Amino acid sequence: MALLSNDQRSHPASPTNPPAHQVVYRQIRELVLYGELVPGQAITIQGLAGLIGSGITPVREAIRRLTAEGALIATDNRRVSVPELSAKLLEELSFARLSIEPHLAKLAAQRITPAQIDALEQIDLLLDEAIEGGDVHGYLHLNYRFHRTLYSHSDTEILLAMADSLWLRAGPSLRVICGRYGTLNLPDMHEEAVAAMRENDPDAVARAIHQDIEQGHHQIARALVEG
């Protein structure tokens, strides 16, 4: 994870040099998305600033944004934590993801190009290597990258933003699953999705993504029952 450089702190923003508050937001967002912050574990704002090498002010701004997105909760005026999923919240999250993401996949499949399919296949090959090698960090990054890249071809704004927000709620629990059960039994219907794209079958792409999400949420539900 890249920390703020002196240049980022002292020079105005440009397309290649985003403002410090945006960099900090992305850094903390990734800590949540990839489960680096464990659900239920409180961290002080100062500790979070020290973790990413930032000042307090941009961290507070990032926390406000991420709290509004449901990715963080304020436990008091100096601490935040990642929300823990309950069975009820998981049910809601499953409904939302299964309603939105397969539809995004279908829309993307209707307009995706062969070169874009090739790029998704390369991501999936790297993902398979991470699964085989027990690389939890690699799995979480590549799994999100596959889905986000696919959905980005849907030519949507509202639905894509909603999917991004839902991933912030699901990501930390996926990290818990990886830590508990390893990577070899993780769901992966990406190969089926890629094959359906090559066959120009958007409905089959949507079904593959639906199954991929459903299987992952079944494992999260199992972890909740087992405690």
Please outline what is shown here.
This protein is mostly helical and 227 residues long.
Mean pLDDT: 87
Q: Helix tally?
A: 10
Poorly predicted parts: 1-15
Helical amount among residues, as a percent range? 55-70%
Largest sheet composition: 3 strands, antiparallel
Please report which band the strand proportion falls in: under 5%, 5-15%, 15-25%, 25-35%, 35-45% or over 45%.
under 5%
Note the run of SSEs as H and E: HHEHHEEHHHHHH
Structural overview:
- The protein contains 10 helices and 3 strands; from the N terminus they run H-H-E-H-H-E-E-H-H-H-H-H-H.
- It is mainly alpha-helical.
- It has helices spanning 6-10, 20-33, 45-52, 56-68, 87-109, 114-132, 136-152, 158-181, 190-198, 202-226; strands spanning 43-44, 73-74, 79-81.
- The two termini are 30 Å apart.
- Strands 1-3-2 form a 3-stranded antiparallel β-sheet.
